[in-house]
Design brief:
single chain; 7-stranded mixed beta sheet; 4-stranded antiparallel beta sheet; about 0% helix
């Protein structure tokens, strides 16, 4: 069973940058997609970035142009580079791997954007 471990969260100033990492215990090749989601207390978990097996990337309008998802197959790691961070980006960020019929979630990493 593939396990995902997120890291890189922390406190960052508004307008700053931060990069999150999601390390998989096994190869990420063969996955239908991998993505990053975020959630704050009292709100639903929402997609912030997704990368398909083809390499195509998908972003919602809320982060498009500011966030970049990428992967390193050799390291079995997916990254989320975040720039021009805003206070509303504050959330727990979760990594997700999807095979179509099943999915795995990471434990989450907290990102706080505050001056």
């Amino acid at each position: 069973q593939v396990q995902l471990v997120e890291s890189g969260g922390g406190l960052v100033q508004p307008g700053g940058s931060l990069t999150l990492s999601c390390a998989a215990s096994g190869s990420i090749l063969g996955m239908n997609s991998m993505g990053w989601y975020r959630q704050t207390p009292g709100k639903q978990r929402v997609l912030v970035a997704s990368i398909l097996s083809s390499g195509r990337k998908i972003y919602p309008d809320s982060v498009k142009g500011r966030f970049t998802i990428s992967r390193d197959n050799a390291k079995s790691t997916v990254y989320l580079q975040m720039a021009s961070l805003k206070p509303e980006d504050t959330a727990v960020y979760y990594c997700n791997a999807n095979w179509g019929l099943r999915e795995v979630w990471g434990q989450g990493t907290l990102v706080t954007v505050s001056s």
